[in-house]
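Quick check before the chapter quiz. The format below is the same one you will see on the exam, so make sure you can read both the input and the output lines.
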Amino acid sequence: MSSPSAIMGVHENAPATQTRPGAWPNGGKSVDTKQDIPLGLCQCGCGRKTTISPFNDRKWGAVKGEPRRFVQGHRHVPSERERLWARVDQRKADECWLWTGAKTAHGYGYFRFDGRLRHSHLLVAEEVYGSRPEEMETRHLCGVKLCCNPAHLAWGTRSDNERDKIRHGRSNRGSRQGQAKLVDEQVRAIRRGRVAGETNESLAREFGVSGQTVCDIIKRRTWAWLDD
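Here is the expected output.
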């Protein structure tokens, strides 16, 4: 993994240049065959004849009785790093680079790396910025779960991530929470009413909630994130 660096005008964790990380010929897509090479010749383009396969081999695309596709040792086997980046749709530097591989039920990309299933955006962040700092998470500054553009990723705390979700409208806090009895504006009204001198009991009757609910709102034990 490469070490982190800084860039002005993006964010503190962004790469020092806008060159695409993991860049290699063909944009990271490993090309192991050439369309114009006839069957029977090594598909790497060396011109050597291949042998006849004595058995079927699905892994290597061999068919019993037909010429092999490659001379032994000539086939390029993509590394894990190459396979990771091959699944990232790399676009312009300021656009989202969407993950095209497997996705979790929650809409995040994932990839088997070093024997473990891990989130694709986390792998990209570690590739560009180095190992994840302790007690840090990967933030999506753009709010797009599948984005793997390093310029849209940053390390942050759980609180940073929650604020990002609220800013992007993806948080289930407040009225978005299925069991919520109040909406944002009602909570603000309760706080304004208490400042104006109304009692917790009268506010509870007005909004159809318990006195404890009003007390928690006033003391910011609940709805603490909501600005007045």
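If your answer matched, good. The mean pLDDT is 81.
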